[in-house]
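Posted in: Protein Modeling Q&A

I'm a second-year student putting together a small comparison for a lab meeting, and my supervisor asked me to include a predicted structure for Inner membrane transport protein ydhP. I've never done this before, so apologies if this is the wrong subforum. The sequence is pasted below exactly as I got it from our records. If anyone can share the structure token output, I'd also love a short note on what stands out.
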Amino acid sequence: MHSTELSKQHWLLILTLSLLTFVLGTSEFVIVGILTDISSSLNMTNVKTGTLVSAFAITFAIATPLVMSVTSHLPKRKWMLFLIASFIILNALCVISTSYIMLLTLRIMTAIVTGVLISLAMIVASETIPIKKRGLAISFVFGGFTLANVVGVPIGIVIADDYGWNATFMLTTFLGGLAFLASFFVLPHKLSQVRSSIRDQFSLLTKPRILMAFFIPALGFGATYAVFTYLVPILKEMGTPNKSISIILFSYGFISIFSNILAGKIASQNAIGRLRFVFLVQAVVLTSLFWTTNQFVLGLINIGLMSLMAILLTTSTQLYLIDLAGIYQPKATGLAASLMPVASNVGIAFGSALGGIVYHQGNLMNVAWVGGIIAVCASLLTFFSHQLDQKQNTSE
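Accepted answer (user: helix_wrangler)
Welcome! Here is the predicted structure, written out as tokens:
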């Protein structure tokens, strides 16, 4: 596309894809808030019910790139509509689920559908929006997840409190229906369709530049979650009243909306070049928590800045992976689009685990140093990757 302006049809598509990610995000994240309700209803321990979360994450990370590779030849519009319809059916079955095994199976299947739909949404946004507006479009699509955390999840939890956890899945089923209708009328009919072998797809993962790009968001998310995972204990150590913690967490999610907007700005030009310094700022913000949390107000301001920095990397790294695939293996852009969500899950698991090890070894606030060090590593990797880009551009 040569136009640099967004038409009404472009905006309809962006909002439709954002609605889709909002629905998918609500379905994925709300389970954490209703675990105790499910435990009580199905007479299980909270630990066993927690496997609904871990199974979803593991399936998402493993299955998404595999399914994207195997189905790369399918017409995107029909495939997306089929997946959204499958999402609706799976969530409807969760409403009537009466056993742990049934619910676990449904959540695993939903994880596969979710991962593939997210990847396809990113590809469609990247392919159909004018190149200079791709950053804005992708940031809106990612914004659906942010809104899911800020709006969708709380609503789902309130519904579970009033009507039971099954009713929460009625909500996600209904939202899935809205996403299907919007997608049916708005998704373009002529979307790219690339026929390639699984070997072509997975050859992408043998490219060192792709692996480097994969670990940039993994380290970026790892830096945040080394601290965020233990934010509630940190708030309690700061002397935060229990009743105020939920308000602070809501505010954290609200601030991340602005982080998502800034992510689109960063991605608009020289994204990886800018991201080098974003990670350095993130390192300062995270490390500063070691001192600022000694004072309640300063600590809250610092936590707000942490939220603002948290997802500045998303849009840039998503587009970077797709663009690199276009250079090294054009037939594998579908697989490339799935790598950022997978990287984020890897980073969350890695950061949480590393932060947990340090936390249990001594001072809780040492997790701030862990987060800062990981962010510096992300910056160094981004510096190196950007340098290689510059050399490649010069040689061409």
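A couple of things worth pointing out for your meeting: The two ends are 24 Å apart (CA to CA). Residues 201-394 form a domain with the Growth Hormone; Chain: A; fold (CATH 1.20.1250.20).
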